[in-house]
Amino acid sequence: MNKFKRTVMWIVLVLLILSIFLSIFGAFVGAEREREFFNSLPLAVYWLAFILLLIVGLTLFRRLVGVPGLLLIHTGCIAVLAGSMWGSEAGHKLQKELFRIDKIRKGQMVIPEGGRENRVLLENNKQIKELPFSVELKDFRIEYYKPQYLQIRTRQGKSWRIPVEIGTEFPLGADFGTVKILRAFENFKVNIEGGKNVPFDDPQPGFNPALEVQIESAEGQVVTKYVFERFGGHVQPADRLLLSYHRNISDYISELQIIENNKVVAEKNIEVNHPLKFGGYNFYQHSYDDQAGQYTVLLVVSDTGLTVVYAGYLMLCIGVCWHLWLRHLLARGR
Amino acid sequence: MDDGRWTRDDRRWTRDEMEIKYTTQCYLIYITMGAYLLAFITTLLHRKKIGHILYLLGFAIAVFAFGYRWYDVRHVPLQNLFEVFLCLGMIYPVSLFCRRVLGVGGYSADMLIGFIVLFPAGFVRRFSAEPQQLMPALQSWLFTPHVAVYVLSYIFMAKAAFQAVCHLAGKTPNPNENLPSPEQATYRMICAGFPLLTLGLILGSWWGKLAWGDYWGWDPKELWSLASWLVYVGYFHFRYMFGKKHARINSLWAIAGLVVIVITLLWANLSGLFAGLHSYAT
After folding, report:
1. Which residues of A, range 223-262, sit inside 8 Å of B by Cβ?
2. Which of A96, A166, B42, B110 is at a distance of 20 to 30 A from B209, taking alpha carbons?
3. Which of B258, B185, B227 is nearest to A34 (CA)?
4. DSSP states of B175-223
5. What is the 8-class DSSP label of residue A166?
6. Coil, strand or helix: which one is B7?
7. pLDDT for B134-168, tens place per residue?
8. Which residues have C-beta within 8 Å of that of residue B213, sequence separation ≥ 6?
9. Residue A270 touches chain B, beta carbons under 8 Å
10. Looking at beta carbons, which residues of chain A come within 8 Å of B224?
11. In this structure, are residues A209 and A199 in contact, taking their beta carbons and an 8 Å threshold?
12. Residue A321 and residue A297 in contact, taking contact as beta carbons nearer than 8 Å
């Protein structure tokens, strides 16, 4: 190996070791600061140096070009780095300056149920930009796993997990009696009728899930308690049992339509892991109105550079599998 | 008592980190651990046939334990550290592959590795065996392949690190067994495990894009995974350049890789230092 090649290999090793330490350093400082750090100007130079080194390596070392697996691995790495730089915040600014492409890189949209929106709050939380089309939310809903459960604990540490089955009585043993769930509420409210508090399930928008629980002690005393999912932990000194109610969410669903020139041009029920793709953007289920479920919050992300990154991933995968596995298996077969 | 409808738990609340877990699931783990340990001891005492039978028995019980968990939680059990380490305990196929296809030794060490990886699942309190339903972010077809390829790669890298330690300790294989040197064995196993590590990283990135909108979120777990991948990239480059002259440093790279993997798998999830999107893995 000549001196120049040896120097290049040394630089590769140094950069790899530096990358390892930067990754570890980033894990300690946290995602936000790491994102800012790796998207800063000095690190942009670092990434460019990495890409340049890969290109120099391909030029210098014939083996990297002559051996298919190695070629795929190294060009795949170039594609991943180039694609991610092009899709970064700096990449979007460059596109705006060079090609006058003013695309939103990342932001959030809040859309009320039945409403339509084209404004996006950018990730810097300071600017609002408009999309060239509108997004309409037909319906937002949350689905829960069934059965739901009521957790019961004693002060001594015993605990039970009871499925929410209306009317079924569950024994807790000779010391604690039995428990029965009488009603389940989606939106618990109280009316005053004839001087008495009468609970009811309010059909108006709102989230106040609750259970009406009847506890019959071992001595035959019957008590009715209300357990609230959102307001747990209320215990009286005389209470022997601590009750809590929690529903596990199975899915968040936003039924969306894309409206362009007053026509519906796309529609999809988006969930986590199932975004909507349209117009160079991806729309993700990000958050929602946790008070009344009346609006959804979508994450809007530009897909600039994504194809190049995915192509790089594919090349890297094929290259690594070919070079380290398949060519040896084929050679064995012969 | 567990009649499938409701459960009663008499577990005492203590500050200890370790406990014996009195559930059917954990009894299966303890029996598997016992079989693996006995297999290791009998193999060391040159009772290889009995050792092999015990190893197979341990593997069969490990598979049953994994299947039992799958039935209990109603989804592929790879959601939290308990389930991942339960999966790691099914080490026998990798053992067989390394012996028959890669032609490397360390068969008896695999029994010990199987025992060690099941220990946290069986005894560490923070490795909770409480069944959990899959949260929306985990309901993806990429969930199983992403975690499964990582689990498989970790076993290969652990075996590679074991061979690297043997190399540093100056151990050579029995000439009668026709096995490669520990340094060569390390290389073969890293070659087997590295594509899986790469696939795991890429599948995770792809899944992150579908779930959260970012194929790279600078999450601590992602950064530690990248660090472990880069260590093996460094291993290959160093071995290409200086491998013949500084073979012992090759082995140090392999051991460093396993150290970073252990940190990625355990510290990144369990430590309060690294709160991130992967914290549901605890």
Report:
1. 248-252
2. A96
3. B227
4. GGGT---HHHHHHHHHHHHHHHHHHHHHHHHHHHHHHHS-S----HHHH
5. B
6. strand
7. 889 999 999 999 999 999 999 999 999 999 999 99
8. A106, A275, A282, A284, A286, A299, A301
9. no
10. 23-24, 27
11. no
12. no
Which residues of chain A, if any, have pLDDT below 50? none
Contact call for B202 and A313, based on CB within 8 A: yes
Number of Cβ within 10 Å of residue B120's Cβ equals 20
Question: Token digits for A217?
Answer: 């002690």
pLDDT tens profile A163-220 = 999 999 999 988 889 999 999 999 999 999 888 889 999 988 888 999 999 999 888 8
Tokens of A134: 């509108």
pLDDT of B2 over the 50 cut: no
Q: How far is B37 from chain A (nearest CA, A)?
A: 32
Q: Which two tokens stand for residue B34?
A: 């016992």
What's the rounded Cα separation, in Å, for the pair A118 and A259?
10
Confidence band, pLDDT 50/70/90 cuts, at residue B12: very low
Domains of chain B, residue spans: 17-129, 134-282
Which residues are CB-neighbours of A240 under 8 A, at least 6 positions away?
Answer: A154, A155, A176, A217
Interatomic CA distance for residues B245 and B31, integer angstroms: 46
pLDDT tens, position by position, B27-58: 999 999 999 999 999 999 999 999 999 999 99
Q: Say if residues A309 and B215 touch (Cβ distance below 8 Å).
A: yes
The shortest CB-CB distance from A34 to any of B137, B218, B260 is to B218
User: In the β-sheet with A210-216, what is the strand arrangement from edge to edge?
Assistant: A169-171, A178-185, A210-216, A222-228
Say how far apart CA B193 and CA B104 lie, in whole Å.
14
Bridge partners (DSSP) listed for residue A191:
A198
Amino acid identity of residue B61, one-letter, is: I
Question: Smallest CA–CA separation between A275 and chain B, in Å?
Answer: 7
CA A47 to each of CA A16, A248, A275, B212, B271: distance values in angstroms, whole numbers, following the listed order: 12, 42, 30, 24, 30
- Structure confidence at residue A146 (pLDDT): 87
Beta-bridged to residue B241, according to DSSP, are: none
Query: Strands B7-9, A188-193: parallel, antiparallel or unpaired by DSSP?
Result: unpaired
